[in-house]
Each structure stands twice: as C-alpha cells, then as structure tokens.
Write a structure and sequence with these properties.
The protein is an all-alpha fold and 176 residues long. The protein contains seven helices and no strands. Helix 4 packs antiparallel against helix 5. The N and C termini lie far apart (68 Å).
C-alpha cells in the first residue's frame, strides 16, 4: 500500500516537473498571440505605413474612428437583434405574412444604418487622404478584395443557411 502511494506520488511529481520544465524552456514555448499577430500582419497590409500618413492624418483618422465606434456597435447590435426577430417570425409555430414583412422592414432599416455609417466613415477618411495616398489606397483595397474573393471561392457557400437552421430545430418538418 505504501509502495503504491509512493509510486503514484513519484509519477505525479515527475509529470509536474516535466510540464514545468517544458513551460520554462523558451525553445518549446509558442506565443500564440504573437504568432497570430505575425500571421495577420502577413495577410493584411499596414495601411499607416503603406500610405505614408502624416501624424496629423493619423490623429484625424483615430478621432473619426473613436467617434464612430459606439454608433457602429449600436447599429450592428440593432441589426443582429432585427435579424434574430426576423428569423423568429419566419420560423415561429404560428406566423403571418404581416409579421414577417414588419420584421423584414426592421432588419432592412437596421442594415441600412450599418451601411450608412460605414459609407460616412470611409468618406470622412477619404477626405483626409492626399491624391497620391488615395491612388495607393485604391490599389490596396482592390488587392484585398481579390484575396477575399479567392478565399471565398474555396469555402463552401452559405446558400440555404436559414433553411438548414430551421430544419435542424427539433420537431421541425420540411416545408415542402
């Protein structure tokens, strides 16, 4: 009995020591946040450096973004809530066309607000850029859009997502 306890204690201690040694060995440590940041830096250009923005331009952009952030967060939350209400109306046990139409209009209004805020933000930033910076920005934006499209073409589509969610709910029946 004592021998079994001693063996269990020894194995536990050896295991803990090996874990501690691995954690303290810098060659074995993986800094995931730094690794993720490095990967993101490779994927996305640093616009501040690429565009050659002045410190005044950077301050102006930061100010624009600081002012926009709470309004955008509220608009995105409203859009998510409106989308959830629309889903609820569409897939409710008892539903009506009027209810779905009302929820659809609410979602469209919330979505329009998000688009409006994005457009205003981009326009405000665009006004800060010099003509040369604007040309460079358009090139970077085009290249980013191409990369995004290439990535999207390799991913499975989202077509029919709402219907798949409905069919996955317990007790739901095929509508056709």
């Amino acid at each position: 009995m004592k021998m079994t306890r001693f063996l269990v204690l020894f194995l536990t201690l050896a295991f803990e020591v090996s874990i501690a040694a691995a954690q303290n060995d810098p060659s074995r440590q993986i800094d995931k946040p730094a690794q993720n940041a490095a990967t993101q830096e490779e994927k996305r250009p640093n616009l501040l450096l690429e565009l050659g923005l002045s410190s005044d331009q950077i301050d102006q952009i930061r100010s624009i973004n600081k002012e926009r952030r709470p309004r955008m967060e509220a608009a995105q939350k409203a859009m998510r809530n409106a989308n959830a209400a629309l889903d609820g109306a569409i897939y409710a046990d008892v539903t009506s066309a009027d209810e779905v139409t009302t929820r659809l209009k609410e979602f469209q209004a919330a979505q329009a607000q998000v688009v409006k805020l994005r457009a205003e933000n981009e326009f405000n930033i665009r006004r800060i850029l010099t003509p040369e910076q604007l040309v460079k920005f358009r090139e970077l934006r085009r290249a980013f859009a191409e990369k995004r499209e290439n990535l999207k073409s390799r991913l499975p589509g989202r077509r029919g997502t709402r219907l798949r969610r409905f069919l996955a709910k317990p007790g739901s029946q095929r509508p056709f």
